[in-house]
């Protein structure tokens, strides 16, 4: 394992870390923007396409589901042919989906376009985890993933404001044309600025099924993977229902919906910053879980009594997102570290299942009858319990994995 790391370190003499970080941030920011930019325009989309609340929530659910599932294709493909070609292909597919969304005249056409966008940005979701593993391991990998979290978080912070401005000025179709333009800029930048991070002699020709079996046989990986899945299912569930709670239940203006919707993002930024500075993994895990739990209680307790309080939604989401910001780089780095030769597959599993779970959570928010903030309170509380159980499973499995893989080698 160490020889692989030593081989890859000289690449930074050709491509500097700030360049790699900037390219990854631009790419994954596209996926994040596509997830939130249309939220302020939901009332206009509903009116223009005569779509119900369930269909409007399904826009995010379908995007997240395809975004998650297609990562299982891009991951092993990138281990076999390199990172650059799959990444550029996926971003081009995203542009096609955004253009179709921009000319949509029915809700079904818009949902299909969201599906295509997710299939495209799945390349960014999978490879934004694999590419850092091509260069880093240990504390440096965790720190690099923290930087990605802190930088990327600005895209969903800005996206709803930008989307609200586009929708108010030119109509909701302009939101998707804006996405297509941003995607084109990213493709051009990748084509001329990204140097392949996985040389030919380091690629893995192992069949995809065998590679997935190899990664999933690691119980340590599985525990942290399910903890990430549950964390982001809670985040996605809140994002799927927040616009409706703020806009319809609390009768806020589109501008205020945007303000409240992005308010938790600085909390996530703070959590990622904490993770980049803190060396103790156990301490980070305890902090992250505590913040998730506190946020879930703020969302759940008013819901049990049938209330919807803006300040509880705000406080609960900020706390939950801060915990998620701590856990993302910590759990991602711990899960990826054992797999220098299967970084694409491991990254696809992390990103794919994480976002598929987020899509399922968003779908649940669309299908379950909305009763104030009870549904999101219950969902977030259940996710916290799953995080605790999954992390404990990973810790209990650590000695087992060391013994098993040590014997194998």
Throw out a few tags for this protein.
82% helix, 18 helices, disordered C terminus, Growth Hormone, Chain: A, mainly alpha
Overview of the molecule:
With 409 residues, the protein is mainly alpha-helical. It has one domain (16-196, 206-408): MFS general substrate transporter like domains (Growth Hormone, Chain: A, Up-down Bundle). The protein has 18 helices and no strands. It is globular.
Question: Layout of helices and strands, plus pairs?
Answer:
Elements: H1 2-8, H2 17-36, H3 42-49, H4 53-69, H5 71-81, H6 84-102, H7 107-135, H8 138-152, H9 154-170, H10 173-193, H11 208-216, H12 219-249, H13 254-262, H14 265-277, H15 281-304, H16 310-336, H17 343-367, H18 374-408
Helix pairs in contact: 2-4, 2-7, 2-8, 2-9, 2-10, 4-7, 4-17, 5-6, 5-7, 5-17, 6-7, 6-10, 7-17, 8-14, 8-16, 9-10, 9-13, 12-13, 12-16, 12-17, 12-18, 14-16, 15-16, 15-18
CATH class category label: Mainly Alpha
Report the helical percentage: over 70%
Number of domains: 1
Classify the beta-strand content into a percent band. Answer: under 5%
What global shape is seen?
A: globular
Total strands: the figure is 0
CATH homologous superfamily identity: MFS general substrate transporter like domains
Q: Tell me the structural class.
A: mainly alpha
Low-pLDDT runs of 5+ residues are 1-14, 405-409
User: What name is given to the CATH topology?
Assistant: Growth Hormone, Chain: A
Over all CA atoms, what is the radius of gyration?
20 Å
Largest sheet: none
**Integer average pLDDT:** 83
How many angstroms separate the termini?
Answer: 11 Å
The H-and-E topology, N to C, reads as HHHHHHHHHHHHHHHHHH
Named at the architecture level, the CATH assignment is Up-down Bundle
């Amino acid at each position: 394992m160490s020889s692989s790391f030593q081989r890859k370190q000289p690449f930074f003499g050709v491509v500097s870390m700030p360049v790699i970080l900037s390219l990854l941030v631009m790419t994954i920011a596209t996926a994040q923007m596509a997830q939130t930019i249309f939220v302020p325009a939901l009332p206009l989309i509903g009116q223009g396409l005569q779509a119900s609340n369930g269909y409007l929530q399904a826009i995010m659910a379908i995007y997240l589901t395809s975004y998650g599932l297609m990562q299982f294709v891009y991951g092993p493909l990138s281990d076999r042919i390199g990172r650059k070609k799959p990444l550029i292909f996926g971003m081009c597919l995203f542009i096609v989906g955004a253009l179709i969304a921009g000319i949509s005249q029915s809700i079904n056409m818009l949902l299909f376009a969201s599906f295509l966008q997710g299939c495209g940005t799945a390349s960014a979701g999978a490879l934004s985890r694999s590419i850092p593993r091509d260069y880093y391991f240990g504390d440096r990998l965790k720190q690099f993933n923290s930087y990605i979290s802190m930088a990327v978080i600005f895209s969903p912070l800005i996206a709803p404001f930008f989307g609200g401005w586009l929708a108010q000025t030119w109509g909701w179709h302009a939101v998707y044309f804006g996405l297509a333009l941003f995607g084109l800029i990213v493709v051009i930048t990748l084509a001329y600025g990204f140097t392949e991070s996985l040389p030919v002699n380091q690629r893995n020709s192992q069949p995809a099924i065998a590679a997935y079996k190899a990664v999933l046989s690691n119980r340590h990986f599985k525990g942290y993977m399910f903890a990430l899945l549950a964390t982001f299912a809670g985040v996605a569930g809140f994002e799927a229902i927040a616009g409706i709670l703020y806009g319809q239940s609390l009768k806020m203006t589109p501008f205020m919906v945007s303000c409240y919707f992005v308010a938790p993002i600085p909390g996530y930024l703070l959590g990622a910053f904490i993770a980049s500075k803190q060396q103790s993994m156990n301490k980070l895990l305890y902090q992250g879980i505590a913040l998730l739990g506190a946020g879930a209680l703020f969302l759940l307790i008013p819901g049990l009594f049938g209330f919807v309080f803006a300040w509880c939604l705000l406080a609960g989401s900020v706390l939950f997102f801060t915990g998620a910001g701590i856990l993302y780089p910590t759990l991602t780095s711990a899960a990826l570290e054992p797999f220098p030769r299967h970084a694409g597959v491991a990254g696809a599993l992390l990103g794919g299942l994480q976002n598929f779970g987020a899509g399922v959570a968003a779908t649940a928010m669309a299908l379950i009858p909305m009763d104030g903030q009870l549904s999101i309170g219950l969902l977030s509380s259940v996710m916290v319990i799953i995080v605790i159980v999954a992390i404990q499973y990973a810790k209990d499995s650590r000695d087992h994995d060391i013994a098993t893989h040590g014997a194998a080698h």
